[in-house]
């Protein structure tokens, strides 16, 4: 129990919330908002999105009978208030921590988490599936999908709307319209929603009609149906366009003030009795109730630790310059290359700040494109640019790239187009957990023909790979790099071409060969130093490329070494180590190969250091595996 939360401390489940008078929901909302501020200021996580839906969250759990009724959140970082109200208040301080609760809804964590979510645009399809399953099983319950306007830019959301509108299943889509994803929302849909929300005359007439017909609904049960038909005509006349959602056969309600908790609760109660697919348009402010988060919505999406009184975000200070973040190296290098190569175009699906494309966007806005939360479109859009001789750098977080795999294969690789994929957040990302770990890209990219698959060990290698990719000589090019800092303080070195498929030898030795791909090679290099203190000398290679492999070097390695250790921060199933095994089998070598990487399971959240340790791919884990391998080698020689 925490002091200062008179009502919130009494709420251990939504049943406790329902015991309150509806007017008390205002106080609950205020306390819930302050609780989120208090905890997240010292235990970093997503911030602004959950503050913006506090009243909506309270109203939903007040009006709905959860967990029997189903609420699907989209995307999951809106759901902190939901978690606090559904029995996780006292463990909320463990949010996103190792062995603590997840930062996203997770079905295995709570019966109140109706559907797991980390990526966007999934809620409508999931809600429709639940609604149809209910109908087939004779269940009568409320199903609501809460989707942000940024998530509505994803193609999957429109697929869900299209399918749901053609059904007669009872479900509610709540459009949380705050004009933001992480960066400001973009595209024609944003402008459409602005048109709806700013038409004061239309909304005034609509509300008056709805209230009027509601009063006579008892004596004329179909009054509101007539009101809706009349409303559509009024809207068409006033806005000179039909309502997008109504054209998809959704009954449209709104827009309404998303911070008026009493009104929303009553409205949700009313909407229960209206059959079929419905859409409630709710206007909210991201970061609501914390001034700095309202003013700096992108920065306070996930700000890290901050002063809850002043809003100051705490930064780790150091007298010595720190190595840069890999995404910053990407951003500065891309701008450097774009200044010299006018064919270069930058593309990202809704992450210009996160991936640092904004560095180029600020100077060359006409050559950068934020396409919204639409990874499939980002890839095919890039393919179209490349088909006309331009050089698109398509930057997508590794785990989000999975959503565009078909486009990578058919629209880029099959047509041999020079698209440069920069997969940010490759490997284990830490606190965001299983939905965000970028551990599959090495495996799924190496299976596609006509694509070079590369991963740099440091910032200089990243710059060289980007330089090589934009030369236009090698076709489709995939470069993946991790979340977090690199290793070089002096990283802005002259760029040079790297021949695809050429590795580099870092250390020489006769006892064991260690092969690594990507940033994880720095841990392998540290382990090599530890082994050297034990009088164990290793050949250590930074392989640079998963595809093509450096076959010339591999022949030399397998002829020399009976024991080979591969290291990657990708899945061991089908990844870099698998490629090495395939080479060995193809050429009839009989060496022993041990693969270190991400095991064949989904990894939960924690710090990167904790997760690297658990997977055995930090320096200590690599050292331990290598030493046991060498002991095995010594024993075999003795026999």
Structural features, described:
This protein has 639 residues and is an alpha/beta fold. Helix content is 41%, strand content 15%. The chain contains 25 helices and 17 strands. It has a 7-stranded mixed beta sheet, with helices on both faces. A 5-stranded parallel beta sheet has the order 1-2-3-5-4, with helices on both faces. Helix 12 links the parallel strand 4 and strand 5. Helix 6 packs parallel to helix 7. It is globular.
What is the CATH superfamily of the largest domain? Thiamin diphosphate (ThDP)-binding fold, Pyr/PP domains
* Average of per-residue pLDDT values: 89
What structural class do you assign from the helix and strand content?
Answer: alpha/beta
CATH C-level category of the largest domain: Alpha Beta
CATH architecture of the largest domain: 3-Layer(aba) Sandwich
Distance separating the two termini: 65 Å
Rg over alpha carbons: 27 Å
CATH third-level topology of the largest domain: Rossmann fold
**How are the strands of the largest sheet arranged?**
7-6-8-9-11-10-15
- The tally of helices reads 25
Show unreliable segments: 236-240
Judging from the principal axes of the Cα atoms, what is the shape?
A: globular
Strand composition percent: 5-15%
Largest beta sheet, briefly?
7 strands, mixed
Topology, number of strands: 17
Any idea how many domains? 3
The portion of residues assigned to helices is 40-55%
